[in-house]
Amino acid sequence: MIGFDLDGVIIKIGEILQREILKKHNYDIYDCRHTYYINVPGLSHAENQNLVYDIIINHGMEANPYPGAIESLINLYKTTQENLTFVTARDPQLVGAQTWEWLKKYLGPTIPFHVEFIPSKSKAEYLYNNKFKTFVDDRLRNVNDIAEYLDAVFLINRPWNINRETKYNVIRVDSVVDVCERYINSKRAFV
Ligand SMILES: [Mg+2]
């Protein structure tokens, strides 16, 4: 079974955050693109987190998918007949319904999917306990935490994780399109 993180992997939330933070705080998050967390000067960590959620609540539906991501997911489902499973650290109370709505909007009514809302620090344990073999994330720390427990862990190259060291069994790729292709090929190899 394969699991996918959402933000930074499937959902291109960065450009919405950039647009809104520029509007509200006159600060371009492009300036902090090399760190995972949004860090608007003058705001505490909690205030930055609240700001991000505020934007996702009000503008999350405007986010585009990464190029090719949706087509690849649909193809993956059609080829393997495995339900798509997304594992995100998004807060289900704040944006759970909207996250479902976004996925429904892009995947359409006929592709079954499932979303688990799991805080980053518990993702590794969740994936291991639920027998996932493969996971895809854009956060370096997550993939390093998970790598030793799964067969294959993919890190999507993004500005906030490049030039940083991954564990030996983390596979870096440029997009989820690559991951889906590899996963489908690995399944074919065993039939
Ligand atoms: Mg992410």
**Uncertain stretches:** none
Which ligands occur here? magnesium ion
Q: So, CATH architecture of the largest domain?
A: 3-Layer(aba) Sandwich
CATH homologous superfamily classification of the largest domain: HAD superfamily/HAD-like
Cα end-to-end separation = 16 Å
Largest β sheet strand count, sense and barrel closure: 6 strands, parallel
Structural class by helix and strand composition: alpha/beta
Q: Please, what is the average pLDDT?
A: 93
Q: CATH topology of the largest domain, what is it called? A: Rossmann fold
Overview of the molecule:
There is one protein chain. It contains 7 helices and 8 strands. The protein has 2 domains: 2-11 and 64-189, Rossmann fold; 13-62. The strands form 2 sheets. Strands 5-4-1-6-7-8 form a 6-stranded parallel sheet, sandwiched between helices. A two-stranded antiparallel ribbon has the order 2-3. The model has no long low-confidence stretch (mean pLDDT 93). Helix 1 crosses helix 2, helix 3 (69-80) packs parallel to helix 7 (176-189) and helix 5 (123-129) runs parallel beside helix 6 (140-147). By secondary structure, it is an alpha/beta fold. Bound molecules: magnesium ion.
